Amino acid sequence: MNREMSRPELKPRARSLWVLRVGVAAALVVSAVIHVQLAPGYQQAAPGGIGQGTLFLVQAGAAVLAAVFVLLKGSRIAFAAAAVIALSSLAAVILYRYVQVPAIGPLPSMYEPVWYAAKTITAVAEAAAGALAVAGYALLQKNRPGSRVTSRGRRRGTSTA
Question: Is 80 contained in some domain?
């Protein structure tokens, strides 16, 4: 038997989904690693409470969980969760860079009006993870807009009998 014939090939759609899954997971892990590295320095302002360092660790944990979920499951829900985590992290970075939001209850004010390498890398990673996760979700969308074919391959409004 020919070696080429014995190995099953992935269909283009399945291959695209795997590329998206790995890309989303990798970008989320980059964001998580940098947040873990930065957390101790940001926690100094609130050593015993909810400080920015604690929030960084929570974000890192959520990003890692979403990365694992996308890799293991690769479902629409997994891509949606990854998109929400990545894009909300990106929104927070941008918000606290340009807007001086005051402390809200136990949450500290996190205004930081500068861009530096680690912050820029996390923003790019979160934007990439969000975009790839949205693309994965869209690729898995069963009923595409404008399509008259249902998820079972039948045209809407027709019966099987």
Answer: yes
Enclosing domain of residue 116: 11-140
Q: Do 51 and 108 touch, CB atoms closer than 8 A?
A: yes
Q: Within a domain: residue 125?
A: yes
Number of domains, the chain: 1
What is the predicted pLDDT for the residue at 106?
80
Q: Could you write out the three-class secondary structure of the chain? A: CCHHHHCCCCCHHHHHHHHHHHHHHHHHHHHHHHHHHHHHHHHCCCCCCCCHHHHHHHHHHHHHHHHHHHHHCCCHHHHHHHHHHHHHHHHHHHHHHHCCCCCECCECCCCCCCCCHHHHHHHHHHHHHHHHHHHHHHHHCCCCCCCCECCCCCECCCCCC
Question: Is the pLDDT assigned to residue 33 strictly greater than 90?
Answer: yes
**Is residue 94 within 8 Å of residue 123, measured between CB atoms?**
yes
Assigned domain for 149 exists: no
Say if CB 62 and CB 85 are below 8 A apart: yes
> What's the pTM value of the predicted model, to 2 decimals?
0.80
Residue 161 resides in a domain: no
Contact between 65 and 98 under an 8 Å Cβ cutoff? The reply is: no
